[in-house]
Amino acid sequence: MATQFIPAGKKITLKTKVRGDIEEVTSVTFKLYSLRGKKKEELDTVTADVVDGIAEAQWEATGPDEAKEMSLTVCCDVEAGETKAQLEPIVVFFDHIKVVAKDAKNSSDPLPLALCKIEMEIDSRFSMFRDHPWWGKKSRVLRADENGEILFDNLPPGNAKLSWRAPFKLKKWTKKTGAEREAQVERKFIAKLLNPKAGTALQRQFVNLSPSPTDSSRGSDLLLRVGADPAFSASRAGDKVYLNVKCDPENSDRNDDPKPVVEEKELKKGKEIKLDKAIAEDGGFAEFRFNFGAAGGDKFTISVGGTDDCADLELQVETWRKVWIVPVRPSLSFPLEKNHLPEAIRAKSQKAFDAAYIELAFEPAITVNPDDDWYGYKLVICDPDTSETLGLARKTHYFHRTYSPPHPHYRKKFLAGDAPPDREPRFYLLLGHGIYSESNGYHATLEMEEPETDWFDVAVSLLPVDPAGEPIVKGSGLSRWEDTQGNSGEVTDAFIEVNQQERKLKVKLPTDEIGAPGNLASKENPIKLRLSLRSYGFMAGGAIPGCPDWLSICWRGDEVLAAAYTLLHEYGHAMEQAVGPAAMEKMPGLSLNHPHTYGMNTEHPKQHGHQGPHCNFGLTSGDAGKANYADLIREGIHGSCIMFGGIGPKTDYAKALQICEHCLPYFKAWKL
Q1: What angle do CA 654, 660, 662 make, to 5 degrees?
Q2: How much is the pLDDT for 415?
Q3: Average pLDDT over all residues of the chain
């Protein structure tokens, strides 16, 4: 049988059809009783005359106990002569609740404007139509009138839960059940964030920057100032502000000073801290002082309220570091569109360093002429083999070096005197085109019987083409030809033809004069060539010794990913990554064991062909044990961390342009 739902106090028609001889049955008795669990209690009895075989009676629905319950199941037995039947069950329920709020400080006074919330657990047997006021709803919040009264009406059948919303807090219920309820309620206030600025939900805290009175995101210190929201009620002297801080379980293990604290209580990873402070005067506020330490990537969820549930507002704080990158180019002829590093390099660099919570701010390039004395830095054009200064005839073919660290006077003058206070720290990126020695070039020994060979595939990074697109053959006598009869000579540009698009080269034997190798070549007299060609297509960089805020990078405009990788790699070195023991000791609390660091010192037999500490995360154990990683790099085998030592023409930058899981904690913990 279907269950009927009737609001208490409303009339319901009890109806039954009488079968048989209607002259024998003239009236019907409806006996109503309540069911509370298994207990049956007589509730009411009504009678009705039988008219045309139908008996109908009106009954005013009663049943729920005002002091105990919101609904009651009522059953109805029908007696017509000796015939008995039973009508479908009836659920009588209160479709309203009246709540009276009394001031907890004086229980005889009403508390106007108090906020009360009702949450309904609707009876699963009740079929709600779309025109019902509670269609699609589960809760409602109403404010008390001047008499402290709140009426929740048109309620569906079910269980009701009442609670008081901030800035009001329940002290006690003086009448807790039924349709008429009363509570003593404390008046609190709704907290409002005054600093950082109102409306802030996420605060990116740059812990490596100097503090600013106008920018709360600068510095590791944060003053949290909380007052009352005037839209609800003003604060009064003695009102308390409640604070709850949850520390993310993935926060850094760095544990030296300054430690993350709030009001001198340490903010330990994975822990929760609760505090409260009283407001000293009417209309005043409370302050909580934080220091978020030196590490990046620490996360704190700060909840604040006028009650101890801290439900009024929430502030998420993430610790970041920020550094400005200033490109330094040799001349205006160095190709930089709009005087900036290309957007692709900047975007790739920032994406990789987001994981370390480091924001990179790229400034316009500074142009410095070679040999100028620039704040104590001597920039020169030099041959990396001989360190001899080169002429300026080929201005696009520089490699920039700095000789001797800058004089402290100039360093202080530049960083403290000229740099704006909101632009620190800076890294200066020396840009240049690399001139490499033969040891970094293309090497081949060929025997040729004909004046011309087929095209040779050459790795992109070893293609002997300068940035202007011209083939370059070293005319130093290191590239030579000779035959079996004792004839020999120097290999020059005339021997080489380059297919730049396909990254290939072809070696030709000149036939322009008597005695030229092309005229001498035959099966009986093969010409042997020893080629040593210079290359311009490889990215290289370095952190300047003695100048930790200066980096250098060799540049090819078409190698965006390589440039981004090299920039990030050298930037990592400037932060003393990949970590060796000396760097680890500067980060107390972190493990002194990085399982993928190799090359701890220059004398170590496992330098693997790249000087200094690096990270081989991503290599198999077999590849990691090889003596020289350069052999792997040429085959496209490399680590999957930006701190791996070396890149090549087959480098997979989707794999390489990231900080590995072992290096990341040290990147995040490093004090910038």
Answers
A1: 170
A2: 40
A3: 80
- Edge-to-edge order in the sheet of strand 139-143: 139-143, 115-122, 158-164
28/81 Cα distance (integer angstroms): 7
Count of alpha carbons within 13 Å of 664, Cβ hemisphere only? 20
Cα distance from N-terminal residue to C-terminal residue, the chain: 75
Q: 7: Cβ–Cβ under 8 A, 6 or more apart, which residues? A: 61, 92, 93, 94, 95
Q: What is the pLDDT of residues 437-464, one digit of tens each?
A: 344 455 667 788 888 877 765 543 344 4
pLDDT at 534: 55
Token duo for residue 354: 């987001």
Spatial distance between the Cα atoms of 657 and 7, rounded to a whole number of angstroms: 68
pLDDT tens digit sequence for 570-580: 888 878 888 87
The helix-helix angle for 343-354 and 560-574 (nearest 10°) equals 50
**Residue 108, amino acid:** S
What residue ranges of the chain have pLDDT lower than 50? 371, 373-423, 434-440, 459-471, 535-538, 545-546
Q: Which helix (H) or strand (E) holds 584?
A: helix 581-585
- Residue 577 CA to residue 321 CA, distance in Å, equals 16
Least Cα distance to 311 among 323, 302, 320 occurs for 302
| CA quadruple 7, 8, 9, 14: dihedral, nearest 10 | 70
The whole-model pTM stands at 0.63
Other Cβ atoms less than 10 A from the Cβ of 638: the count is 23
Q: What is the pLDDT of residue 457?
A: 59
Strands (E), 165-270: 168-175, 180-187, 191-195, 202-206, 221-228, 240-247, 261-262, 265-266
Could you give the CA distance from residue 483 to residue 63 in angstroms, rounded to a whole number? 119
Q: Which two tokens stand for residue 243?
A: 């604070």
Peptide bond into 167 cis (omega under 30): yes
Task: Report the largest interatomic distance among the alpha carbons of the chain, rounded to a whole angstrom.
Answer: 145
Determine the pLDDT at residue 424.
65
pLDDT in tens, 555-599: 555 677 888 888 888 888 878 888 877 788 888 999 888 899 888
If you write DSSP's letter for every residue of 333-370 in order, what string do you get? TS--GGGS--HHHHHHHHHHHHTTTEEEEEPPPEE--T
Tally DSSP H helices, then E strands, for the chain. 9, 42
Q: What is the pLDDT of residue 475?
A: 54
Please count the other Cβ atoms lying within 10 Å of the Cβ belonging to residue 394. 16
Residue whose entry in the numeric block shows the structure tokens 């600068």: 218
Q: Residues for the chain: how many in total?
A: 672
What is the Cα–Cα distance from 96 to 101, expressed in whole angstroms? Answer: 16
| Confidence at residue 231, expressed as pLDDT on a 0 to 100 scale | 73
CA atoms within 13 A on the CB side of 427: 26
